[in-house]
Structures are given as structure tokens and as C-alpha cells.
């Protein structure tokens, strides 16, 4: 098989993955095995956790954070992890341990969404990608890159504006109210104009990354305050955690809108707003996904034509089929 080729594998999963893991552990290169569900990931873990230098990791939202829960007074997960908790919490933090293991692992096993996040923000590129349940990759990719503008988005704007007024100009509240009202009238004829105004007035006019960075620093200081009233401290930490989470959400939303091609997307309305979804993943794959040397697609149902039409890799495909 030539380098940079796409390989479709319709074969017993355990045999294929076991062979790939055995081959990859002979080198220092990274293999990334991803799949549609965390349930299947657990099956992989039960089968392959004895393999040296393999790491099983889910998204941050799947891990509870005892430190944030303690100081906010409400259940929190690792999505707002700031890596500054005391040693007695850090030493027992499951998410921190798994992330540290993933940095040196030769094989990482996760879900499609986590693989896409690492493609967008990670620095360590896989030598080989293995996609199990590959017939679900297209839908997972579309879901990951979809944009949903609803009333809840404007509720987040309202909270952030009330909690961090100094970062917003005087006209921001007016624009928010006007665009919230106009949301009910968005259709397939005017959604492009609406999206442009939404982006210009609500996303480009504010540095949400700065809000998030400042909130993270303030959150650390609030938790380290020794002489603070415990009740007030929990209230402050809870408020800052919400600010950090919402500012990070809008920073990511800005990136998502910049990535999406409205002319190659599916528009649809919902009860409280509208959505945009990529029509096919081919263009996004080429633009946003960093190529591995080898890509293995595992499925009992997909065909060569399906892979070529969704990922748009005509002329770069080689196949290994079940005998």
C-alpha cells in the first residue's frame, strides 16, 4: 500500500486493530483509533488495555471535577479545567492522569468528536488513523461542524453581558435584542445576511478569548483566597466558572462560523432558531483534517463509492476487502 493512501478495511475488527497496534508499537509514531460511541470504546478498553503505551480517553465533559464541584457548590465536569487545583485533588484527577498518559502514548483510543478536536487543536499528528464504525463518520463530522443559532445562544449572550459588561461596547445590548427578535424571521432566503450581522456585531466586536483568559485568572485567584467567606467564595467561583464556560463557547462558535461554507451547507429551521450543517464532509476534510500517512476505515456496511463520495478522495483510494 502506498503512502498517503486511503485503506478501507472490511474485516474482523479485533484482528485488524490488534495487528495495527502491534505494528505501531514497533515505532515511536502515533496511532489514533476512533469510533462513533463511547460504548464501543469501552469494549476496546476491555480487549486492549493490557497493551503497553495505549491510552483510552473521552471528551472532558465525561469526567467529573471534584475541585470545581467543591468550590462552586454544584456538580462540575472537566470542561472548565484550569489545571491549577491543589495537589491533593490533582493527584487523584482522572482526567489529568489520562491527558498526561495521552501525551506519550503510542496508541490513543477515543470517539470521533475527540479525534476531530485534536485534529483542529492538537500538535501531535497521527501516523495512522483507524476509524471503526466508519459508516457513522460522515454524520459525526456533520454534527461536529454544525452551527445552531437559537434562543439559548442569546440567553448566553445576556448572561455574559451582565457578568462582564466592561468588555462590551454600549451598542451590544441593542444589537443582541434586535438579532434575537429577527431570529424568528430567518429563512432560506435571508439567513446569509443574518449570519453576517450575527458574526459582525456579536462575535467579531468582542474578544471572547480575552474574557475567557481573564475569567480563568480570576477563578484561580478566587479559589486561592484563604480568608474569604466560604458561601461568598462558592458564589464567586460559580459565577466565574459560568463566565469562563460561556466565553469559551462563543470563542469556539466564532471559529466554527469562520470554518463553515454557507454555500455548501444545509439550512434548516427549528422551533427556536436555525441551523447550518455541511452538505458533505469532503471539503471540510481537505481543509481542516491533517492527513495521516495511513487511514484505515473499518465497517461491515460502507462501500468504496460511499467513502469516495463523502470524503472526496477519488484517485487516492486502495482497498483491502474481506476474503
Structure, described:
The protein is α/β, with parallel strands linked by helices and 323 residues long. It is 50% helix and 14% strand. The chain contains 14 helices and ten strands. The strands form two sheets. Strands 3-4-2-5-9-1-10 form a seven-stranded parallel sheet, sandwiched between helices. A hairpin with a 2-residue loop joins strand 7 and strand 8. Helix 3 crosses helix 12 and helix 9 packs antiparallel against helix 10. The longest helix is centred in the C-terminal third of the chain and has 30 residues. It is flat. The protein starts with 5 loop residues before the first strand and ends with a strand.
Q: Name the shape in a single word.
A: flat
**End-to-end CA span:** 17 Å
What level of helicity do the residues show? 40-55%
Structural class: alpha/beta
Short description:
This protein has 323 residues and is α/β, with parallel strands linked by helices. Helix content is 50%, strand content 14%.
Amino acid at each position: 500500500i502506498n503512502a498517503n493512501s486511503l485503506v478501507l478495511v472490511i474485516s474482523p475488527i479485533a484482528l485488524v486493530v490488534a495487528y495495527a497496534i502491534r505494528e505501531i508499537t514497533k515505532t515511536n509514531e502515533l496511532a489514533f483509533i476512533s469510533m462513533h460511541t463511547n460504548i464501543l470504546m469501552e469494549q476496546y478498553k476491555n480487549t486492549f488495555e493490557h497493551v503497553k503505551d495505549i491510552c483510552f480517553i473521552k471528551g472532558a465533559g465525561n469526567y467529573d471535577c471534584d475541585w470545581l464541584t467543591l468550590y462552586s457548590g454544584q456538580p462540575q465536569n472537566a470542561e472548565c479545567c484550569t489545571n491549577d487545583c491543589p495537589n491533593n485533588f490533582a493527584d487523584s484527577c482522572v482526567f489529568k492522569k489520562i491527558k498526561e498518559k495521552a501525551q506519550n502514548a503510542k496508541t490513543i483510543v477515543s470517539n470521533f468528536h475527540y479525534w476531530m478536536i485534536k485534529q483542529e487543536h492538537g500538535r501531535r499528528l497521527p501516523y495512522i488513523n483507524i476509524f471503526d464504525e466508519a459508516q457513522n463518520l460522515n454524520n459525526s463530522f456533520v454534527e461536529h461542524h454544525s452551527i445552531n443559532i437559537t434562543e439559548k445562544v442569546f440567553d448566553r449572550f445576556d448572561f455574559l453581558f451582565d457578568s462582564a459588561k466592561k468588555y462590551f461596547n454600549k451598542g451590544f445590548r441593542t444589537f443582541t435584542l434586535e438579532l434575537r427578535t429577527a431570529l424568528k424571521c430567518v429563512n432560506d432566503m435571508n439567513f446569509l445576511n443574518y449570519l453576517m450581522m450575527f458574526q459582525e456585531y456579536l462575535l467579531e466586536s468582542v474578544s471572547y478569548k480575552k474574557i475567557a483568559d481573564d475569567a480563568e485568572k480570576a477563578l484561580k485567584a478566587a479559589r486561592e483566597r484563604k480568608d474569604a467567606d466560604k458561601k461568598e467564595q462558592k458564589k464567586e467561583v460559580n459565577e466565574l466558572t459560568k463566565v469562563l464556560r460561556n466565553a469559551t463557547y462563543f470563542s469556539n462558535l466564532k471559529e466554527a462560523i469562520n470554518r463553515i461554507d454557507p454555500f455548501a451547507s444545509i439550512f434548516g429551521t427549528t422551533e427556536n432558531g436555525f441551523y447550518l450543517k455541511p452538505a458533505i464532509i469532503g471539503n471540510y476534510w481537505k481543509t481542516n483534517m491533517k492527513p495521516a500517512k495511513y487511514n484505515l476505515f473499518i465497517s461491515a456496511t460502507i462501500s468504496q463509492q460511499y467513502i469516495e463520495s463523502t470524503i472526496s478522495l477519488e484517485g487516492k483510494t486502495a482497498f483491502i476487502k474481506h476474503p
